[in-house]
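Sorry, explain these tokens?

***
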Amino acid sequence: MKIGIVLERDYPTTPADIRVEKEIWSLQKAGHEPVMLCLQIDNERPTLDSYQNLRIRRVNIPMLCIRDWNDRNVASHFESESSEWVKEISRFISEENLDALHVHDLPLGMATIISASKRNIPVVLDLHEAYPLLVDFMRGTEDKEWSSVKWVSSYETECINGADHLIVTIE
């Protein structure tokens, strides 16, 4: 099975993200062919690359880095350039002739689900963080009525319901 991995950061990273590395190794060991679509942060890295028998395609889409955890910035992080991501993920599915997608973390969850639904392929949503709690913590409040916490919680629920499979790993 050819499985596309969608990552909202560049790959490989230093230090290595062991969760992503283990996923790639596990898929390869099980006889699958993983290929990756990730963010191009460093323009020195090639758009098409390979690393440890993994083909990598990098896209240059601006992502919002959250410095001020207010309502507008949190929502923008999850929606930032989502139409561009839908376009790139859809192209990735077509050009690679993918059988399934595995998306890492919540910010690209909906863009991946939308893209996969157009081609009728399954999505594995891999949540590494409890984003509603993270947003609450980063804002430094115990106010559960804060709108960004509600918004992220609602977005997370939509993504969980839209995915075909769910993996949750919180350290």
Remarks:
- The longest strand covers residues 33-39.
- The CA atoms of residues 64 and 134 lie 16 Å apart.
